[in-house]
Specification:
198 residues, alpha/beta, Rossmann fold, 8-stranded mixed β-sheet, 5 helices
């Protein structure tokens, strides 16, 4: 399905940023998918299962998936910056990849930060899972964004995500019975992304 994940340290605004990179196997890459992990102060890393599932979905769609660790996580230097520096970190990874229109994907805190990054650039498309709309300001996103949420999510309530999506006329794909981390439903998450892609 894919070659082994490689790790790379790139220059960022607060020092080195640790990234995990997965390439599609046996074919040229169709672009870059940048995948952002959940909140660093609550155990979020690039190895988070939802983050990995998103990366895997995009590799299978033919993209090179980049999963950075936010500052202060793993081998990434710096300290948590309430989303401000994390936004700069994601922008630095995009610049490093030389991608003019990457796919932006993220989970929870990472999804909210990606929504902010999309205001500064024009992504090819977005896929956001469990968007942390209540805990962080998540601006409106492009109309073709895929928003996926678990019905039983108690970390980010479905009602809050619907309230955020409603004024945007933005559809939300609800996975019945899924919690915030999509336990035993990661295969459904991957299938939704892949089946929604053009």
């Amino acid at each position: 399905m894919r070659s082994a994940t490689r790790r790379e340290l790139i220059a960022g605004p607060a020092g080195k940023i640790e990234c995990a990179i997965d390439e599609p196997e046996g074919r040229p890459s169709r672009g870059v998918a940048l995948v952002a992990h959940p909140h660093p102060l609550f155990g979020g890393t690039l190895d988070n299962k939802v983050t990995q599932a998103l990366a895997r979905a995009f590799v299978e769609l033919g993209y090179t998936a980049w999963r950075p660790n936010f500052r202060g996580v793993g081998a990434s230097e710096g300290a948590h910056d309430e989303g401000r520096g994390e936004l700069e970190d994601l922008a630095a990874v995009v610049e490093h990849t030389k991608s003019e229109r990457p796919v932006l994907a993220g989970f929870s805190f990472g999804a909210a930060i990606q929504a902010k990054l999309a205001q500064k650039m024009k992504p090819e498309r977005m896929a956001l899972v469990g968007v942390a709309v209540k805990h962080f300001e998540a601006p409106p996103v492009p109309t073709d964004t895929i928003v996926i949420h678990g019905e039983e999510d108690t970390t980010v309530l479905l009602a809050d995500v619907l309230a955020w999506a409603r004024p945007q006329d933005l559809p939300v794909v609800v996975v019945p019975g899924a919690d915030h981390f999509f336990h035993r439903r990661l295969h459904i998450l991957r299938a939704i992304v892949q089946n929604s892609w053009k």
